[in-house]
Amino acid sequence: MLYELLLNYVEVFSFLNVFKYITFRTGLAFFTSLLIALLMGGPIIRYFANKKIFNPIREDGPSDHIIKKIGTPTMGGIIILIGIIFSVILWADLKNIYILFCLYIVSSFGLLGAYDDFQKIKRSSSLGISSKVKIYLQIFLAVLGLVILSYFIEYEEFKNLYFPFFKNLFVNLSWFFIPFAVFVIVGSSNAVNLTDGLDGLATVPVILVAGCFAFISYVTGNIVFSEYLQILYIEGTGEISIFCGAIIGACLGFLWFNAPPAKIFMGDTGSLSLGGSLGAVGIVTKHEIVLAITGGLFVLEALSVMVQVISFKLTGKRIFKMAPIHHHFEKKGWPESTVVIRFWIISIILAMIGLATLKLR
Question: For residue 171, what is the DSSP state?
């Protein structure tokens, strides 16, 4: 919005040419969303506390959670959403279909998460809308967005699945592309949601993955860099760097209040929207497998739940003391801060491996 307005005066004020640079607008998006999150955090926390919008604690969770976390406001994802959406609208090219797609995913999944949080608060229970209903709604939202996106995408490579570490290895998914893309978005959304169980645990890995894809989207949308790195060039995807910059800024601002001991939790409002957004970015840049590598911590958390459920149904025994896996280590006696920081370290390592795939081909 502001970006397009400023471009109208480039011929009059030549210094406005700086707004044509994606890197400059990415920085602006980062600082805008960061400032919004920092300014809004305190008032929203006080308002939610007064309205008793508290986080329902799992009764089967670690016992100290009931003491430490009860009475902590939730739905803090609103802070993140406002920061992302407002800064992207200001600094991104709103005629870019990839930006519109990412805005749709972050908004629609955020609204779904907010409704789920509202149901939890209303019922004073850690259970919101049923898991099946939530999954069905996520699938519907993802399919709707992908069908519209596919209508506007003209290049055939969009339906390819590219493998890292190889120069020209890919598979054309053809009609299976939509189901696969839905799996990526919905899977990413729920994986981040499962990870969001300790103070700051999900926020930093989201920042790391968004940082990786800010770079990936920039080089993918730059014909010179994409040829040098021997990756697919996709015109227009450079704008996604601005979206990723907004995610990083909003999450950093939120982390100021979410750092242990958390003053507010993001809730499903934040985790579902952030996870869905990362999935959308992975699809748009055609780096879905790299997303699974950089976001490996989220994959690990989701797999731990799947393994736990399958094991219990087949054998009646649980592999972990509690799932997701971060609770397993809490049950083993690890302090919460130890679990969080060690999981952050794992995320940093995975992010570096993910970035390395761009060069090792």
Answer: E
| Spatial separation of the C-alpha atoms in residues 279 and 187, rounded to whole Å | 8
Q: What are 246's two structure tokens?
A: 């907004």
- Rounded Cα distance between 79 and 43, Å, is 10
**Amino acid letter, residue 108:** S
Closest CA to 22 of 258, 246, 310: 246
Using the CB atoms, write b or e for 148-182: b if 16+ within 10 Å.
Answer: ebeeebeeeebbbbbbbeeeeeeeeeeeebbebbb
Nearest to 223 by CA among 207, 208, 234: 234
Kindly state the tokens that stand for 351: 């992010």
164, HSE (Cβ side, Cα atoms, 13 Å): 20
Strand 170-172 vs strand 160-162: parallel, antiparallel, or unpaired? antiparallel
How far apart (Å, rounded) are the C-alpha atoms in residues 350 and 166? 19
The pLDDT of residue 13 is above 80? no
CB 158 within 8 A of CB 235: no
DSSP letter string, 173-227: -GGGHHHHHHHHHHHHHHHHHHHTTSTTTTHHHHHHHHHHHHHHHHHHT-HHHHH
Contact call for residues 232 and 167 (beta carbons, < 8 A): no
Beta bridge partners of 170: 162
The distance of Cα 27 from the centroid of its chain, to the nearest Å, equals 19
Instruction: Check whether the bond before 261 is cis (ω within 30° of 0).
Output: yes
Run of H or E residues at 306? helix 296-315
More confident residue, 19 or 266: 266
Q: Please check whether residue 54 is in contact with residue 73, taking contact to mean a CB–CB distance below 8 angstroms.
A: yes
Triad 318, 322, 328: Cα angle to 5°? 115
- Taking alpha carbons only, the member of 256, 260, 216 closest to residue 240 is 216
Note the pLDDT of residue 71. Answer: 75
Q: How does DSSP assign 63-90, residue by residue?
A: HHHHHHTTT-B--THHHHHHHHHHHHHH
Strand intervals (E) in the chain: 160-162, 170-172
**Least confident range of 86-100, 139-153, 215-229, 314-328:** 314-328
Residue 66 has pLDDT above 60, yes or no: no
